[in-house]
Design goal:
single chain, 419 residues, alpha/beta, Purple Acid Phosphatase, chain A, domain 2, 6-stranded mixed β-sheet, 19 strands, 27% helix
């Protein structure tokens, strides 16, 4: 059987709550490089969102360049296949693709290349890899069986992709329509590859497959028309998917590897991994094994009151984590992020939902704020000093007499200045 590693959603250059993750991503890529050296892998597959933004930072570009240079030197026979995701710029991902292809590095941003497979051979097994980048609205037109739509011919070389190519066809817009058209053409190309001697076929794609579970760190596609039926690609031995950050199987032959690092606190409970995939056996079965990624820093969530985090020995094992703390105190703690960061240097978020919920309930309680029935009655309105006093109670649970007196003085001076 042929073995390859499937990963996706590297998001190189990403920040987490304004904290750069380049150091963490460099460590992750080192882990990936070492995993490639742990077995006889024929290929590395990266299913999109290589960068976090369409115009990546120079540091992110340098990081990817160093990684590719390292694995090309260490594993000269390794096939490398990477596609553009919805975060990537297809043109930037595919820059120099013809030159890189000569080195066995296939960077695919143009969908027209999806129907010409990359053939990888290892130990007598030939596998055809089809690389389908993210299909942006308008990147494809619907073709008939003979390459004709609305009476307009489209050349096989163009593949019917892109607007303004003189095809005269109407571009497809939704992910559902785009993927259905791509699936029809891919099935023809898949059968052609098998007839040409391929033993197995693999599709690499970046999309939101129906039945998949998303995370808060992904860019959302709105509407059911943006979800793709993975059954469209049931003919492939394995479908290597990217976009969803949670590792999951969405069809008998289709897997998301998930992101190799956690990019939101919602992902704190997820075990991140690369997928080791074996295809091409005589039984036609596919074997998928997760390869755990030990991050440079974990992403963690902790709950408790402020005092429990403000003791010398509290949560020592989490002080190196990217951390979100949810405080259970009934009253708001002033500037807790700065105060607790002395003990937790990678604390990125503090939530005070309990206190805020109590404040909201207090504001809605009878007599706490003048309601509609008393708003027009001057005798029922509180003065600015009383409002300030209530604010202190809501914020700190008590009233500082000096603050109240100072505020009253300032209000009186302001009134005198306007009369």
């Amino acid at each position: 059987m042929m073995k390859f590693i499937h990963t996706a959603d590297l998001h190189l250059g990403r920040s987490f709550h304004e904290c750069s993750l380049l150091e963490d991503q460099k460590a992750m890529l080192t882990t990936l490089s070492n995993q490639l050296g742990s077995d006889d892998y024929a290929a590395l597959v990266v299913a999109g969102d290589i960068y976090d933004r369409s115009i990546p930072s120079p540091d992110a570009i340098s990081l990817l360049g160093s990684f590719l240079g390292d694995i090309r030197k260490r594993f000269p026979d390794l096939a490398i296949l990477m596609i553009a995701g919805n975060h990537d710029s297809p043109e930037r991902i595919a820059y120099g693709d013809s030159l890189f292809a000569e080195l066995g590095i296939h960077l695919v941003g143009n969908p027209v290349r999806a129907f010409e497979p990359v053939l990888v051979e290892r130990e007598g097994i030939k596998c055809a890899f089809f690389a389908l980048p993210f299909l942006s609205p308008g990147s494809m037109i619907a073709l008939g069986e003979n390459g004709v739509q609305d009476g307009s011919e489209v050349s096989a070389e163009s593949g019917g992709f892109g607007e303004g190519e003189g095809s005269g066809g109407l571009p497809l817009r939704s992910q559902r329509d785009l993927s259905a058209e791509a699936a029809r053409r891919l099935e023809k190309a898949r059968k052609k590859a098998l007839a040409g001697g391929a033993d197995c076929t693999v599709l690499i794609a970046h999309m939101f497959a129906s039945g998949g579970t998303g995370s808060e760190s992904e860019r959302v596609f709105l509407g059911t028309a943006e979800k793709v039926d993975p059954g469209l690609f049931s003919g492939f031995d394995y479908v290597a998917l990217g976009h969803l950050h949670r590792r999951q199987q969405v069809a008998p032959n289709a897997w998301y590897s998930g992101s190799p690092l956690a990019y939101s606190f919602e992902e704190a409970d997820q075990d991140k991994a690369f997928l080791s995939v074996r295809v091409g056996g005589t039984s036609g079965t596919v074997e998928v094994e997760p390869l755990t990624v030990g991050p440079l820093r974990r992403v963690s969530r902790l709950d408790g009151d402020y005092a429990s985090f403000n003791t010398p020995d509290s949560w020592r094992d989490r002080r190196g984590d990217y951390l979100e703390i949810s405080l259970s105190d009934a009253h708001l703690v002033e500037n807790p992020l700065a105060l607790l960061r002395n003990r937790f240097p990678y604390l990125l978020s503090v939530r005070q939902d309990t206190a805020l919920r109590g404040m909201a309930e207090g504001l809605g309680a009878p007599g706490s704020v003048p309601g509609p029935s008393t708003a027009g009655d001057p005798t029922s309105r509180r003065g600015a000093a009383e409002d300030f006093q209530q604010f202190l109670v809501d914020l700190y649970g008590t009233v500082d007499g000096g603050q109240k007196e100072l505020f009253t003085t300032l209000v009186r001076e302001a009134d005198d200045a306007t009369t």
